[in-house]
Amino acid sequence: MSDIDVSNLENLNDRAALKSLLEGRSDDEINQFVAALGVDKLFDMVIPAITQRLDADKAAGQSAVVQFDVKDAAGATHSFHITVENGTCTGAQGAASSPRLTLTFSMPSFLRFLAGLIDPMQAFMAGQLQVGGDMVFAMTFQTWFKLD
Predict the structure, then answer these.
(1) Rounded distance, CA 58 to CA 126, Å?
(2) d(CA 77, CA 125)
(3) Calpha distance 41→51 (Å, rounded)
(4) CA atoms of 12 and 15, how far apart (whole Å)
(5) Cα–Cα dist 131/27, whole Å
(6) 54 vs 107: CA distance, rounded Å
(7) Partners of 104 in the β-ladder
(8) For residue 103, what are the β-bridge partners?
(9) Cα separation of 38 and 75, whole Å?
(10) For the structural domain made of 15-144, what CATH number should be given?
């Protein structure tokens, strides 16, 4: 069983804390951690962290819905989406009706992506990230967020 302590995760939305939590962990350990925590609870913690990283100046005048499809260890897909509208960002669990972009990860790759342990372009090239929808927009979209 993973030795990741799920009882003290108030800093999970902090990128440095998430990075520290995940560094050196195997996919199995990360999947066990997520199973103990629960995907819904995990998403309740990471969605606000993502929305708070929006750089309002870079996203001013822009709008897009981006869906994240995250596959758990059993292969089930869990979805959430974020909506960027003129410099603001909101998020919700569940699939979007018509996302401009869909990003698909395994759970360990998704969490490593959030923590900054894998680069989006490298993850795409290595097959750890699949991108559906507007590929040109995908390059622009990533610049709308502060990474540190």
Answers:
(1) 28
(2) 21
(3) 16
(4) 7
(5) 21
(6) 22
(7) 69, 130
(8) 68, 131
(9) 15
(10) 3.30.1050.10
Instruction: Say if residue 40 is exposed, middle or buried (CB neighbours under 10 Å; 0-12, 13-18, 19+).
Output: exposed
Domain boundaries, the chain: 15-144
Spatial contact of 53 and 145, defined as CB atoms under 8 Å apart: yes
Which tens digits make up the pLDDT trace of 13-71? 677 888 888 899 999 999 998 998 899 999 998 899 899 889 999 999 999 999 999 99
Cα–Cα dist 145/59, whole Å: 9
DSSP 86-144: TTEEEEEES--SS-SEEEEEEHHHHHHHHHTSS-HHHHHHTTSEEEEE-HHHHHHHGGG
Q: Is the pTM of this model over 0.85?
A: yes
Half-sphere exposure of 37 (CA within 13 A, CB side): 26
